[in-house]
Amino acid sequence: MSKLSLRAKLLRASLLSVVLPCALLASRPAWASDPLPGDAVVPPPNVNILLYYNEFTDAGTLGAVHGSSYNNDTHISTDVSVLRYVRTFLVNGVNVGIQAYVPYVGFLGEQRVGVADIGALAAGGPDVGAGRANLSNNSGFGQPNFGGFVFPIADGLVGTNLALGFWIAPPVGDFNAGDNLNPGQDVWVYEAEVGFRQTLFGTISTNNLALDLWGEAYGFGTNDKSADVAPSVSANNLGVYGLLGVRNPLTVSTATPATFHEQPSFEFRAYLPYVINPKTNFFVSPGLYQSFGGKQTYSFANGTKADSGNRTEETQLRFVASSFVTPSLAIMGIGIYDVTNHGGPLNRGAELRIAKFF
User: Fold this and answer.
1) What is the helix (H) or strand (E) element at residue 340, kind and residue range?
2) How far apart are CA 342 and CA 47, in angstroms?
3) DSSP 224
4) Cα torsion at 66, 79, 28, 38 (round to 10°)?
5) Which residues pair with 288 in a beta bridge?
6) CA atoms of 131 and 252, how far apart (whole Å)
7) What would the mean pLDDT of 317-325 be, rounded to a whole number?
8) Domains located in the chain, CATH noted
9) Under DSSP, is residue 10 helix (H, G, I), strand (E, B) or coil?
10) How many CB atoms lie within 10 A of CB 299?
11) Over the stretch 138-162, which tens digit does the pLDDT of each residue have?
């Protein structure tokens, strides 16, 4: 069992967009984890937005790297807080903006991964049976992210919009090479994204249905101060070893110095937001998230390499609801449910986002 990356689950970013019903602000900027429905709507210029996010996720199952098998008796639970600032401008008639955010990741309780079969502790020995891999963890600040965006196509508030953006995250944050779980990977992260929105039915002053599509590509630097971590292993069924008086842990956690590599990864999101109350921009939206790639490996001093078993290959269902409670304060709720996640935890989670416009 190698170090598990939380990048795919936690540290995602998106463009900002907002709409202006009535005289004041009344739509929603993107959250600091994903592009969401409405994020490809053209934003108003010269606006400041301060956002706070709180996300809770819990996984009881770990997906196999290949195939459809899953390991149970898993517990990977996090509470993530994010503070984000966005500023929009108008440059030669084009809407642009800059933004930044920093996350704080807290791991809740014991973190472990269920193992279907530990196997024999020695060559020719009896099989230990099902067990658990205990995961050491390091709560703290993740890598700060800095980005910008531009809307080269902006057909009013309800027409066809195209949004382009970028993010960069320097290797700054809490990272301990000896832990299985960290808030970040301590590598440079580069992201490019494109968002497209098309209103399908209705207008801005009536109930309306839209289609939001997003695509993202990620590139990564390397971390030459990382380590391949083998966690302590305990067994639910010790078999014959229990009769011999063997007690947990059966092995001691080790960290082998290594250089961490991650291949490029790609993501796709689709939403169908339906606006129920145009005056407060109250809407609900189902969503689909799919990621690809992101194979993670370690290179050692002796020239050998090891596959960590971690990927960014996740299929997730979403449901989003959002509304302005005052002309300058918006509240959003997001629910997530992983269908598959090869080489990663199957997350179930919820997030609350509060956005203040000034």
Assistant:
1) strand 329-342
2) 40
3) E
4) 10
5) 270, 317
6) 15
7) 96
8) 7-357 (2.40.160.40)
9) helix
10) 17
11) 899 999 999 999 999 988 666 789 9
